[in-house]
Amino acid sequence: MSGKTENKTRPVVPVLVPMPAERPYSYLVPEGMNVQAGSIVRVPLGPREVAGIVTDDAGGPLDPKKLKSILHVFNCPPVSAQMLHFIRWTADYTLSPPGMVARMVLRAPAAFDPEPFVQGLRYTGASAERLTAARQRVLETAAKASSWTKSGLAHAAGVSASVIDGLKAQGLFEDVLIPPLPVVQAPDPFCGQAELSEEQQAASQCLVEAVEEDKYSVSLLHGVTGSGKTEVYFEAVARAVELGRQVLILLPEIALTQQFLDRFESRFGTRPAEWHSDLAPRQRERVWRQVAEGRVKVVAGARSALFLPFANPGLIIVDEEHDPAYKQEDRVFYNARDMAVVRGSIGKFAVILASATPSVESLVNARQGRYRYVPLQGRYADAALPDLKAIDMRRSPPPAGRFLSPALTEAVSQTLQRREQALLFLNRRGYAPLTLCRVCGHRFQCPDCSSWLVEHRFRGQLMCHQCGYHEKSPDACPACGALDHLVACGPGVERIAEEAAALFPNARIIVLSSDMTGGVKRLRMEMEAIAQGEADIVIGTQLVAKGHNFPLITLVGVIDADLGLANGDPRAAERTFQLLSQVTGRAGRTGRKSVGLIQTYQPDHPVLKAIIAGDAQAFYDREIEERERGMLPPFGRLAALIVSADSRSEAESHARALRRAAPRSDDIEILGPAEAPLAVIRGRHRFRLLVQGAKRFALQGYLRTLLQAAPKPRGSVRVQVDIDPQSFL
Ligand code: ADP
Ligand code: ZN
After folding, report:
1. Pocket of ligand 1 (CB under 6 A)
2. Is the same domain home to 62 and 27?
3. How far is the CA of 62 from the centre of ligand 1 (A)?
4. What's the Cα-to-Cα distance from 633 to each of 150, 315, 696, rounded to whole Å?
5. Domains of the chain: total
6. At what angle do helices 161-169 and 150-157 cross, to 10 degrees?
7. 192 lies in some domain
8. Per residue in 341-399, pLDDT tens?
9. CA 609 to chain centre
10. N or C of the chain: less Cβ packing under 10 Å?
11. What residues are neighbours of ligand 2 (ion), with CB under 5 Å?
12. Residues spanned by the domain of 516
């Protein structure tokens, strides 16, 4: 028989492999091997072997001669039909190759094989020769479970391991293999139920009902900072757990603090399983596996947790849903908030979005009735929101070369006298954003990017915030050679720290920014220290604005409120509103009188006026109106095409070619190509096109046609598609 007919009799299945291919690849299923849609398999791919997911989509065109066989099916629960659907949906929506989305699901390769069983002990039922008190305790404890690890039993009974060895020698215990231990205990939905205020009660009731309905819904939990959103959505988590469903709580990575885990533990008697970039690989694998097996009930994770293969998902909570950290801008460009909603609609379960400052998109969805609106108007225990005031920097400027106005300095001083904490917020890392030579005007720029080098004085370096390039801080100007004439222009958090230390030499100062050595762990420790009162002045970037309770902070000073408003992107107003509301909301959480002082050169700017007046409604009304007028999201659709190449001319000519290939349509407007505001990153020149469509316009289909009609990118040219862009740089 020829090979060709033989192939016909053997099944061929499509497999999603971690490759930027448009379609799954086809593989032969060897005789005797059982695979189904969702099976995780090992397949040959060129010279390599990779893990892939058997799918139910049509595979690519078949060339029987090239067809290779699946090598191995992992002993692992198959990826669910829902998850396959979700992979396809995400790929279609973001215009990403499905294999690259599947790759995000297959993030823990060692987890595809089952965890090994653990050596354990089982009570045989024999009786002991001499029953000491310690032995008695061991037997009583042992009766509470069918098997134990030796150390676990010794610990639970409060005896040394030798007591157990003694009993085992007498034949009271025998060796057994026990299933792998759970990464976390099962949460107890009734453990530490909080006493909810009337308003909280009503809100939690809505959310619990959404869970009980057992169908797709989205609720927007909108409560001011300190209103108890976490306590409220914990009730929905409890109900879902009680009903036997798995729950995912998404948090911006940095909000996954000790504090959050502790709160979860006091409510549910155990921690949630964690999922974030700081997890040790072994732990990561165990969480992945136990989520797939349905053994882990609650995961608290950063955005990538959305791609965990939940066996029985029943609720997703997206806390701080407005946070830009939910947007991934690398390979697959997706917004985890939006994809969480999609995941809920595919899985037919409830999704809860929580924020003190919801995104305009989510608020519009709520106002138009697509999302349920669940408000919390007051702070818990009637703690007052901080009293907000603008400091007009034109009228009361700081002394030359300094950045704290006299009014802010005075307020810090009074706060310290009361032995309370002050938070100074500036969303800029390092010491100074620009260094220049006073003699010749030379400015220090990154050799690979179109951005100025930021001085990091503690490290003695000039650094590029785009690519990480750094050099030793020079003494002389490289252009004119003048010594000691380099000046730092503008402030970063380090410079504010220097100024604060000079003004308040006895104050304990902590600077929080992502530059801190020691990574996320260290950052969390510092946050804990602040919460415990081990600092007088905290100086920080946006990191301090996110989801942490600092009970002693009663003054928040915003060093430069105008910073985010300066760049002309369509989200500048929204971001500024969110960031400043969040950061001033750090103050006065435990009921002490608190103040927020906002330094600005444009106190009449409508965004700042709305923040200072505490008038969120005014801000949203105005912003929604402007978006509607400009046909911007959520009233219109946006996508960015980012073309990059090693040379400016290559990037530009390909961007122009894309523009020429764009089919004409009355529903669409194309802006650009224009050189990106960050024109060069890591030596790659960048051009952007912005595609703006009407709300009902099939943007993805249009973009596909456009990309197909355009010449294929050649040489160093790369095209990235960013649907619903958050960043316009
Ligand atoms: P939000 O997330 O809305 O900013 P949190 O959930 O962090 O608010 O709550 C703010 C503070 O109030 C927390 O310290 C929390 O423990 C406390 N709190 C809120 N509601 C309750 C409640 N019902 N019982 C006890 N403490 C509460
Ligand atoms: Zn650079």
Report:
1. 194-197, 200, 223, 225-231, 380, 549
2. yes
3. 59
4. 59, 26, 12
5. 6
6. 110
7. no
8. 999 999 999 999 999 999 999 999 999 999 999 999 988 877 788 899 999 999 999 99
9. 30
10. N
11. 446, 448-449, 464, 466-467, 469
12. 383-428+493-625
